[in-house]
Amino acid sequence: MNPDERKDWDTYFMDIAYMVSTRSRCNRRHVGAVLVQGKKLLGTAYNGAPSGVPDCSEAGCMIAEEYEMKSVDGKETMIKKQRCIRTIHAEQNLLLFTDRIDREGSSVYVTDEPCWTCSNMLANSGITEVVFHRPYPKDTDKVSAMMGQKGIVFRRLEHYQPPQEAVMKVEN
Description:
Layout: H1 9-21, E1 32-37, E2 40-46, H2 56-59, E3 63-72, E4 75-84, H3 90-96, H4 100-103, E5 107-112, H5 116-123, E6 129-134, H6 140-150, E7 153-156
Parallel strand pairs: 5-6, 6-7
Antiparallel strand pairs: 1-2, 1-5, 3-4
Helix pairs in contact: 5-6
């Protein structure tokens, strides 16, 4: 990138989301989210245990297993999903620590595609756009469909390159 060039807004806000994710102490995935209205940054959040409670790096992950029927190539298949229930997701923290009035008509930039639960919460939060980088294939189909029903722009930045100091290998 030419030093005289500015980053586009999508890159700028996603870079911030990735830097926010470095605050996470989760061993499985660092996720950051930012709330933006126009070009104004209104809030940031990352995934982690509730304040004052030991996090995954101190107490280990609390893994819950769930099973879901999914149609794969016309066949019903049971899919196993694992998730840590010690951690509050970045999107949930963002909604907890921002005001509804600020969210009305705003965009959320999040390092990872929101899960089904976070997508439901975002859909009722007043936001009009979700921009993410890393896909979360386990919930993509139903999340995309629901966002479309709500009229929320839901888009992935496929060619985005995160800042090197924020990169973490993630488990899908």
